[in-house]
Automatic annotation (TrEMBL):
PROSITE patterns: GST_NTER (PS50404). Pfam families: GST_N_2. Residues 1-80 form the GST N-terminal domain. PANTHER family: GLUTATHIONE S-TRANSFERASE FAMILY PROTEIN (PTHR44051:SF21), GLUTATHIONE S-TRANSFERASE-RELATED (PTHR44051). This is Glutathione S-transferase family protein. InterPro entries: Glutathione-S-Trfase_C_sf, Glutathione_S-Trfase, Glutathione_S-Trfase_N, Thioredoxin-like_sf.
Length: 223
């Protein structure tokens, strides 16, 4: 049975793509123009939300990026990319896995929307500025942890690092990487140096070119 990932360039679906590469699994990568809701309406038949990711593995269909990583890691690399319930850092793992999406990525989507995606008359600079500050303040809470350890939990790279790592990638697209604190900036460098991260980056552009999808990363679109 083949795993299928529906993906838009550098959207949150980059999380499961990176996880698939870390795990060395076989999968089919289906690139969609962003946003699929406007540019590929048949996708609603696959995911009624119209959002990416959609990870399909047999009868399993997951439309949350952090959950996709947790699922892949637990199924294919327990005690490795996944942190097991019996490990002391299990709680920290779940916390950072969800912190990456709920606390770090959500405020950035407001920046993206109200600074860049909305037509000029609907933009809200105050909202964008406030949520950029919100994001950077939440991000600073990682500083003491990263001063003590290379990764977020369990003394190794895990799916929690993929979840938070995507939030850092998005921040880079939004021009906020210069405001990372030193430990966060060094952590981001370490994540980008991973071969699986680099493969995922290259593969997504190769697949987009092969599938006739525009080569602009979703967060860089300025509709
Ligand atoms: N919480 C979900 C959010 C999914 C989501 O909103 N994905 C965005 C891409 S980053 C999307 O598909 N947006 C298109 C739209 O809203 O129409 C996750 O973590 O996967």
């Amino acid at each position: 049975m083949t795993i299928t990932l529906y993906h838009c360039l550098s959207a949150r679906s980059f999380r499961p793509l990176w996880a698939l590469e870390e795990l060395g699994l076989r999968y089919e990568l289906k690139l969609l123009p962003f946003p699929p809701r406007a540019h590929h309406k048949p996708f609603f038949e696959q995911n009624p939300l119209g959002t990416v990711p959609l990870l399909v593995d047999g009868a399993t269909r997951i439309s949350e990026s952090a959950a996709s990583c947790q699922y892949l890691a637990a199924r294919h690399d327990p005690g490795g990319l996944d942190v097991s319930p019996g490990e002391p850092d299990y709680g920290a793992y779940l916390n950072y896995l969800h912190f990456g999406e709920a606390t770090l990525t959500f405020p950035q989507t407001l920046v993206l929307r109200y600074r860049f995606f909305e037509p000029p008359e609907r933009r809200q600079p105050q909202v964008a500025d406030d949520y950029a500050k919100w994001f950077l303040a939440r991000l600073r809470t990682l500083e003491p942890r990263l001063a003590e350890q290379e990764h977020l939990c369990a003394g190794r790279f895990s799916a929690a690092d993929i979840s938070v790592g995507y939030a850092l990638l998005l921040a880079q697209h939004l021009g906020m990487a210069e405001q990372f604190t030193p430990m966060v900036a060094a952590y981001w460098q370490r994540l980008q140096a991973r071969p699986a991260y680099q493969r995922a980056q290259a593969l997504q552009f190769e697949a987009a070119a092969a599938q006739g999808v525009p080569l602009i990363a979703a967060p860089d679109l300025r509709p």
